[in-house]
Each structure stands twice: as C-alpha cells, then as structure tokens.
Amino acid sequence: MDTSAAKANLEKLDRQVTREEVEDAIRTLLIWVGEDPYREGLLETPKRVAKAFKEYCAGYAMDPRDVLYRTFEDAVGYEDMVVLRHIPFESMCEHHLAPIVGNAHIAYIPVGRVVGISKLARLVDGYARRLQIQERLTFEIAQAIGEVLKPKGVACIIEAEHFCMKCRGVRKNGSRLTTSHFVGAFSSDHGLRQEFYQRLRCEALPTGAY
Ligand SMILES: [Zn+2]
C-alpha cells in the first residue's frame, strides 16, 4: 500500500463510525450467510451485535495500566512471590473475531509496592477486551506489571481455548494453547520459574498441565 492510500485509510479510521453504519454492516453479513435480516427474529440483531461488540472490545476505551497505579506501600518488607492463579477472561481473536476463553496466571516479586488482587484481574480484562492474539495478550499483561510496579520480576502464563479452532477450520475441540512471558528475575532465574510452576501445580491445575 502506498503512503497516500495508507493515509486515506487512517483518516477513515479516525472518522466517527455511526451506529447505523455498524448495523448496516451486520445486516450485510446476515444477507451474506443466507438470511433475511428483516424477518422478525433478526430485526433487533444488528443493534444487539453492535452493542455486544462494544462490550467485547471495551478495552480500547481505557489504558489498562491505570488500574495498577493505586498500590499499597505498607507491604514493604514482603519480598516473596505474589501469585494469582486462575483469572478467567474472555477475549476475541483478531484473525476470526471468534472468542478466546481461558485463564491467566500471574506472579510478581514486589519491591515495596503491591497491588490489590482485583486490580490484576482488571488489568487482564483491559487487555483481553480487545482484538487479540494470545501471545500478545500474555506479553502485554506481563510488561504492564513490569513497567508500573517495577518489581524484581513478572511471570504471566495464559491457557485458553480458541473458538476459531473449536468451531471452524480444523475443529479441534478441547485443545488449549499455553503461552508464557517472563520479565526481569523470572527470565533469568530458572529456579524462580520452577517455583512459579510448582505453585501453579499445587492446587487446582490438572496434572501435567505444565
Ligand atoms: Zn482465530
């Protein structure tokens, strides 16, 4: 794509898209799959889908890192690993607009500042509620914690099912993708990673998950 075409595209993106245009696009999709968008059952569908997409993609309206700025400093002296397992999330794959449903597991080693555990869950949601690939989601969560809390290290593991793989294409139901990203001490210290895996394994995770 030449520069002027790319610029024209960006200008198009900048312009406010109306709700009517989105609903028209969904009606077009309904016709494309063989439906009559004006039959009774589908009359309200474009409106519902438009609203649902705003919810699936609510993460674009925020900087997820903002939730990490309220920290507790009275945990000074706590230098052990903080682990939050099984943070459920729903995201959407950017290749097929199909759901990605899974769990994130996060660990960090604080230096003076710790964050409320609900904030970690909200951080995951902020990045998950965008069009994603799982690898980037994992990276963004770990990097955000690293940048804002400046801990000794951060680990993030995500395991998720991709509905684009479950319901279309190869249709492999039940296969799960596991991704990990390590920052600071976790990337250099094999022992720390082992401890993290051990803590994940010690409860709830199915044997052999890692
Ligand atoms: Zn996909």
TrEMBL record:
Sorted keywords for this record are: GTP-binding, Hydrolase, Metal-binding, Nucleotide-binding, One-carbon metabolism, Zinc
Catalysed reaction, written as an equation: GTP + H2O = 7,8-dihydroneopterin 3'-triphosphate + formate + H(+)
InterPro entries referenced in this protein's UniProt entry, alphabetically? GTP-CH-I_C/QueF, GTP-CH-I_N, GTP_CycHdrlase_I, GTP_CycHdrlase_I_CS, GTP_CycHdrlase_I_dom
The entry's Zn(2+)-binding residues are: C93, H96, C164
* Xref: Pfam families: GTP_cyclohydroI (PF01227)
Domain named GTP cyclohydrolase I is located at: 23-200
The highest taxon in the source lineage is: Bacteria
GO term, biological process aspect, one: tetrahydrofolate biosynthetic process
One Gene Ontology term, aspect cellular component: cytoplasm
Gene Ontology MF terms in the entry:
GTP binding; GTP cyclohydrolase I activity; zinc ion binding
Among PROSITE patterns, the record links this protein to: GTP_CYCLOHYDROL_1_2 (PS00860)
Is Nucleotide-binding found in the keyword set? Answer: yes
Enzyme nomenclature, EC number? 3.5.4.16
Is Secreted included in the keywords of this UniProt record? Answer: no
Catalytic class of the enzyme: hydrolase
Q: In which pathway does it act?
A: Cofactor biosynthesis; 7,8-dihydroneopterin triphosphate biosynthesis; 7,8-dihydroneopterin triphosphate from GTP: step 1/1
Protein family per UniProt: Belongs to the GTP cyclohydrolase I family.
Q: How does it assemble?
A: Toroid-shaped homodecamer, composed of two pentamers of five dimers.
Q: Which NCBIfam families match?
A: folE, PRK09347.1-2, PRK09347.1-3
Q: What is this protein called?
A: GTP cyclohydrolase 1
What is the native source organism of this protein? Answer: Peteryoungia ipomoeae
Q: Which gene encodes it?
A: folE
